[in-house]
Design a protein that fits this description.
The protein has 338 residues and is α/β, with parallel strands linked by helices. 38% of the residues lie in helices and 16% in strands. The radius of gyration is 19 Å and the shape is globular.
């Protein structure tokens, strides 16, 4: 009988790819949803992508509620905790997203602490921020974001707090060696349906010409297919226990991403921004625009992720950022999101 793996928030962009990778590898997948009325859409999307959905089932569970998590994890050999809030428009309170992210992670981990392997989706944002960073900085799995930095967005704070709480619980309860975090950068790659999440929404907005210019900010980029493969390799590789697996290929500025898209999609070239905003203007506009405010910590810095150890541990090699951005654009055009 195939081993069953729980995937939280299975309707999400990354989570659907994780479920697809698991199903294609022969696992049974149990996906959690806040509302089961999304189940049919997930079935259709995964079936269209080529998965055997006969090994897929769903349970209702909400990160902000205790009910349902122990039953969801029962009988599972592995747990992939992928669900976490990621709005493009950031709320005003610095800690507004933290309770759902942190307490949700703790609910999942407490219900899963006797499961053979636990993989938690965190983010490079939990690794790469601190005040007065140099213009070019390399981050490793030992680095942690300094949440005392006032410039940080609620999302960054929530991901950092959630991951720290998870490691603290795993250490206290004695299952740290069975927990692995996956920390992706800016996640591009193909959409499986029109539930694309915030990362691909950035590509969509660039293709639609929503911005006249982009901030001078750079991000490590990763393809969602590689993120999904890394989750499965972490599940199957006990040596990853206790590790934070940074997931990224090259670092690209937003302007470089625009240049890639302009070359790849000439029909959209006139809409895609060609210019970079001055940093001073972004800081000023951020006083009135919450989306721009979230970019303030990224201005003038190019963070690079040290991922050589990840490939050595898991065998996963990351696709070039250019390929990930183009795959995102192609899929968004195909589903008529732009």
């Amino acid at each position: 009988m195939a081993r069953r793996v729980l995937v939280t928030g299975v309707s999400g962009f990354i989570a659907k790819h994780v479920a697809l990778e698991l199903l294609n590898a022969g696992y049974e997948v149990r996906g959690t949803l806040r509302a089961l009325n999304k189940a049919e859409q997930v079935r259709r999307s995964l079936s269209k992508a080529g998965a055997d959905i006969g090994r897929l089932d769903f349970v209702a569970a909400d990160l902000v509620k205790d009910e349902g998590w122990e039953d969801a994890a029962a009988g599972c050999a592995g747990v992939m905790h992928v669900a976490s809030p990621f709005p493009i428009a950031q709320p005003r309170g610095r800690d507004a997203l933290t309770p759902a992210a942190r307490d949700g992670a703790l609910r999942v981990l407490r219900a899963s602490k006797n499961v053979e392997r636990i993989v938690m989706t965190s983010s490079l944002v939990a690794v790469m921020y601190r005040p007065n960073r140099p213009k070019v900085v390399t981050v490793t799995e030992e680095d942690w974001t300094d949440i005392s930095w006032r410039a940080l967005s609620p999302y960054v704070i929530s991901k950092t707090q959630a991951e720290k709480a998870a490691w603290d619980l795993a250490t206290t309860e004695g299952f740290r060696h069975r927990l692995t975090s996956v920390n992706p950068g800016f996640v591009f790659g193909p959409a499986l349906d029109d539930d694309i999440g915030a990362s691909l929404d950035t590509i969509r907005l660039l293709l639609k010409g929503a911005y006249p210019a982009v901030p001078p900010a750079s991000f490590p980029v990763v393809d969602v297919r590689d993120v999904a493969a890394l989750h499965v390799r972490a599940l199957e590789t006990p040596e990853t226990g206790g590790h934070r697996l940074l997931a990224a290929s090259e670092t690209k500025s937003l302007k470089e991403i625009c240049d890639i898209l302009r070359e790849a999609f000439p029909a959209y070239a006139k809409k895609i921004p060609a210019k970079e905003l001055p940093a001073w203007f972004v800081r000023l506009a951020a006083l009135f625009d919450r989306t721009l405010a979230a970019v303030i910590p990224d201005l003038g810095c190019a963070p690079h992720a040290d991922t050589a150890y990840v490939t050595e541990l898991t065998g996963v090699r990351f696709r070039p950022a250019r390929d990930a951005a183009i795959a995102a654009g192609e899929s968004l055009i195909k589903i008529k999101a732009v």
